């Protein structure tokens, strides 16, 4: 499968959106993203729906359970199942979270990893092993976090160090940058500028909830906020346009509202294409 075009827009393949995705007019989105954990081994009506959608749209995959920052051994049996799933559907982009989510069982949340040199080496070693087992490069996502244990370095330094040590790509979630910047008092634009353009494989945008003054919760259950749109614009300017996914995991609105957000991503990409063309002829 060829890689996704840089100027492409995607939507999460969620069971609650299946009917809307199946009925969506051509051109609303260019690709769909699913979590392999939610679809591996699924048959019957849902399996048939996945097959039909995958026949019409390229799939990307965003994992939930590798626990790249965790201490429990990597589940290599599961990784082999993921590899077969990726190969079956011709998936060119597979990503995971730069976090921990397992200990003695699944924690059902994404736990922050200590921002230390030891944390860098630990995560990078696990990512390299994942890439070896899968036989491909993977992208890791900067995650939202609400506590910051053992911060010997700042988040941007940590993320960059892991990317370099693992020699992997970055899935840059601009909503998570906005949430963390508000919650931990750093400058979102400065964080974006620190990320290495050559490693940015794709972007995520999503909604969050303003819980209280100085506290934002990353929910994926509301519309994308204006500051996040501004950050996506800045990311395109800094790092270039890449495939961009609209994440919506629950509280699904009428499909027309998602269409409008997808169209907004496409319009932003078109504006940057026009800017690039004008500079190219200048």
Describe this structure in words.
The strands form 3 sheets. This protein has an 8-stranded parallel barrel with strand order 1-2-3-4-7-8-9-12. Strands 5-6 form a two-stranded antiparallel ribbon. Helix 5 links the parallel strand 7 (139-141) and strand 8. The longest helix has 26 residues, at 255-280. 43% of the residues lie in helices and 20% in strands. By secondary structure, it is of the alpha/beta class. The radius of gyration is 18 Å and the shape is globular. Residues 102-109 have low confidence and may be disordered.
Q: Would you spell out the secondary-structure blueprint of this structure?
A:
Layout: E1 9-12, H1 18-23, E2 31-34, H2 44-56, E3 59-62, H3 76-88, E4 94-97, E5 100-103, E6 105-111, H4 117-134, E7 139-141, H5 155-166, E8 169-173, H6 174-184, H7 188-194, E9 200-206, E10 208-212, E11 215-218, H8 226-239, E12 244-247, H9 255-280
Parallel strand pairs: 1-2, 1-12, 2-3, 3-4, 4-7, 7-8, 8-9, 9-12
Antiparallel strand pairs: 5-6, 10-11
Helix pairs in contact: 4-5, 7-8, 8-9
Roughly how much helix do the residues carry, as a percent range? 40-55%
Which CATH first-tier class would you pick?
Answer: Alpha Beta
The best one-word shape is: globular
Strand order of the largest sheet: 1-2-3-4-7-8-9-12
Q: What does the largest sheet look like?
A: 8 strands, parallel, barrel
In the CATH hierarchy, the architecture is Alpha-Beta Barrel
Q: What is the first-to-last residue Cα distance? A: 35 Å
* The named CATH superfamily: Divalent-metal-dependent TIM barrel enzymes
Low-confidence stretches: 102-109
Structural class, from helix and strand content? Answer: alpha/beta
**What is the percentage of strand-forming residues?**
15-25%
Average pLDDT confidence is 90
Name the helix and strand elements from N-terminus to C-terminus, one letter apiece: EHEHEHEEEHEHEHHEEEHEH
The count of helical stretches stands at: 9
Radius of gyration, in angstroms, nearest whole number: 18 Å
CATH topology: TIM Barrel
The number of strands is 12
Number of domain modules: 1
């Amino acid at each position: 499968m060829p890689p996704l075009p840089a100027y492409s827009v995607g939507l999460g393949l969620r069971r609650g959106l299946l009917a809307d995705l199946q009925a969506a007019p051509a051109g609303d989105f260019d690709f769909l993203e699913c979590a392999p954990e939610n679809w591996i081994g699924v048959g019957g009506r849902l399996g048939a729906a996945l097959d039909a959608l995958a026949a019409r749209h390229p799939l990307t995959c965003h994992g939930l359970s590798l626990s790249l920052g965790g201490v429990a051994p990597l589940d290599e049996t599961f990784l082999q199942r993921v590899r077969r799933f990726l190969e079956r559907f011709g998936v060119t982009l597979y990503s995971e979270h730069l976090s921990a989510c397992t200990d003695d069982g699944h924690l059902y949340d994404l736990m922050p990893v200590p921002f230390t040199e030891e944390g860098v080496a630990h995560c990078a070693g696990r990512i390299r092993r994942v890439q070896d087992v899968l036989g491909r490069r993977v992208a890791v996502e900067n995650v939202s976090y609400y506590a910051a244990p053992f911060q010997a370095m700042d988040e941007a330094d940590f993320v960059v160090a892991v990317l370099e040590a693992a020699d992997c790509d970055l899935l840059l979630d601009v909503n998570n940058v906005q949430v963390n910047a508000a919650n931990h008092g750093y400058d979102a634009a400065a964080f974006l500028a620190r990320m290495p353009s050559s490693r940015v494989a794709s972007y995520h945008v999503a909604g969050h909830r303003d819980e209280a003054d100085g506290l934002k919760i990353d929910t994926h259950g509301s519309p994308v906020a204006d500051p996040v749109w501004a950050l996506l614009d800045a990311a395109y300017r800094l790092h270039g346009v890449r495939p961009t996914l609209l994440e919506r995991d629950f509280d699904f609105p009428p499909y027309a509202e998602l269409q409008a957000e997808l169209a907004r991503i496409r319009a932003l990409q078109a504006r940057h294409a026009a800017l690039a063309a004008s500079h190219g002829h200048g």
